């Protein structure tokens, strides 16, 4: 089970690099990227939003990837899965691959030409330093269901994105994005028997993740809560540009005031406020959603019963589909990534506001999954 990675001094346990330090079936290791417009281009009608993910699941023997592009009313997904093998430095899955040009600074993402008409060849250049977020740990009926580490950074894109031959030139003055790397344990692969979980009926999931880029810094805020508002994980930092001499600044506890389109859970706006150790307000950020991107559709996050992250599909399988517009029902049970404008005092930035308010939520008065 040796691989080329074993020739580097990176071992953490007394095993070849093909093996991880836990036998938990749900161990994963993932890249995530998005591409959105910024500045004056953010208000362009039909501006694209693109998300790409590549994951490895060593204890399931699977690697998979997706690219999802929304432009105007055209929403397309291409996804691919293969047997992982022993070479974990190989980040290609079918037509999709990630190349690390310079760690924590510059990465290239490629989607080769395919029958579904989505192509990408673009370089992500980091603007902010990589920020290591708070560790995400959660238990469910005594079992650890999440134990993951993630770092994130914002940056700009150079390259081309094409859908059906209609090419968009990506330049870092108009096209920004967020990327993250996460690894650890979270539910992946084929569904497990629910067991005692089947007895739980009053459930809900709240998630908020808001990376934003301003002229001379970035902000990264996140929170996961139970239906009654108890926090599972939280983080709020002001992050310096790459190579700045000042460290990331802790902003304290992030609080949220979400506003919804009447009669739906679609986000109309939000106010994010952070409070320091003595309760003083350290930042107040207004969020204006510009485009709603339904991340979960077709990408493997668990909605499609036959295609989930880490699910074995065969030696190599690639699929694609063209999706129609989502109705308001999606926002009651799906995670949405909003390309958004962020305003903090006199500063205006752009980024992603990722949000899900699913099931019961006491803070916002939702009593069930409708």
* Distance between the ends: 49 Å
Number of domains: 1
Which oligomeric state applies?
Answer: single chain
Give the radius of gyration: 20 Å
Q: How does the helix and strand content classify structurally?
A: mainly beta
Task: Give start-end ranges of low-pLDDT stretches.
Answer: none
Q: Total number of helical segments?
A: 1
Q: How much strand?
A: over 45%
Instruction: Tell me the overall shape.
Output: globular
Question: Helix content range of the residues, please?
Answer: under 10%
CATH class: Mainly Beta
Report the sheet with the most strands, covering strand number, pairing sense and barrel closure: 13 strands, antiparallel
Would you report the number of β strands? 22
Please give a structural write-up.
The chain is mostly beta strands. It has a single domain (28-187, 202-359), classed as AttH-like fold, CATH 2.40.370. It is built from one helix and 22 strands. A hairpin with a 2-residue loop joins strand 10 and strand 11. The longest helix is centred in the last third of the chain and has 4 residues, at 330-333.
